[in-house]
Amino acid sequence: MSIEVCAGSFSYRRGTPILQDVSFSAESGEVVAILGSNGVGKTTLVKCLLGFLPWDGGVTRIDGRDLRKIRGRELWRRVAYVPQARAPVFSYRTEDLVLLGRSPYLGDFAMPGKRDRELALHAMELAGIPHLAGKRCDQISGGELQLVLIARALAAEPEYLVLDEPESGLDFRNQIVVLDLIERLCREQNITAVVNTHYPDHAMRISNQALLLFGNGVHLFGRTKQILTAEHMRAAFGVDIAIRSEPVNGREYAAVIPLELIEKGEHGRWIEP
User: Fold this and answer.
1) What integer best gives the mean pLDDT of the chain?
2) What is the pLDDT of residue 244?
3) Which of residues 87 and 90 earns the better pLDDT score?
4) What is the structure's pLDDT at 88?
5) pLDDT at residue 38 above 80?
6) Do 66 and 229 meet the contact criterion of CB atoms below 8 Å apart?
């Protein structure tokens, strides 16, 4: 099983590419991290990947099938999307919002059954938020809402998770809860995840592969350790950095240390992998 983008290109204005000939793939159980500075097209890439925006060129494939040829209900049974948390329009109870994740399995006029409700509560347990049951979504914090949205995605029992900055707005502890949850789902249930993140440390912690966007259509994709080097990230973010690794309990953790801004003119230069 795989989710892939083949030669994806997109621009909001003619002659100004946001994404150009982007190609990447993720196999069962893998995590792909998407990184880059503000405005380089990370969220746009996620929207094109899922068909919310049409590619100018290229295609998204799920298990080799063109995403455009997969019916909506079938697609959303297999792929779950976690957007950036925003204040909800309606004052749903948290468990009711999570239950919406079961929508692809229901007919047009069908009501959720006992199993749907059990799966929604199980998804809340996986996301570490059973204590939020009964609370209204307009009365919880933005970080708690983000965890509710993740639980909604898990309620669909997806094969693929696409997450747009899932750790944004979360405190230090809950960032780790989310990262460990993504990593565990991919490892234990063979779910494939594509994660848009602002945090190189987080990408290094959980991803097998990384897509680094430089802007103006320039990008690098490959194994995380080969892509998220100090040299590449200096070019992508315009910040001089150092990377330090610390072995703990048989596992190596990487930390990115920002040192200083790079002089104007250095930022955005092309770095060969």
Assistant:
1) 90
2) 94
3) 90
4) 58
5) yes
6) no
C-alpha to C-alpha distance for 154 and 81, rounded to whole angstroms: 9
**Among candidate residues 8, 27, 29, 30, the one with its CA nearest the CA of residue 19:** 8
Say if CB 157 and CB 104 are below 8 A apart.
no
**C-alpha radius of gyration, the chain, whole number:** 19
Residue 8 · residue 22 · CB < 8 Å: yes
| pLDDT tens-digit series, residues 207-249 | 999 999 998 889 999 999 999 999 999 999 999 999 999 999 9
Distance in angstroms between the alpha carbons of the first and the last residue of the chain: 27
| Alpha-carbon torsion (176, 178, 181, 187), positive or negative | negative
Please give the pLDDT value at position 63: 95
Sequential DSSP letters for the chain: -EEEEEEEEE-SBTTB-SEEEEEEEEETT-EEEEEESTTSSHHHHHHHHHTSS--SEEEEEETTEEGGGS-HHHHHHHEEEEPPP---SS--BHHHHHHGGGGGGS-TTPPP-HHHHHHHHHHHHHTT-GGGTT-BGGGS-HHHHHHHHHHHHHHT--SEEEEESTTTT--HHHHHHHHHHHHHHHHHH--EEEEE-S-HHHHHHH-SEEEEEEETTEEEEEEHHHHS-HHHHHHHHSEEEEEEEEEETTEEEEEEEEEEEPPTTTTT-----
Q: What percent of the chain stands above pLDDT 90?
A: 70
Which residues, at least 6 apart from 18, have a Cβ–Cβ distance to it below 8 Å? 10, 11, 12, 40, 41, 44, 217
The whole model's pTM is what?
0.90
Instruction: Name residues whose C-beta falls within 8 Å of residue 189's C-beta, 6 or more positions apart in sequence.
Output: none
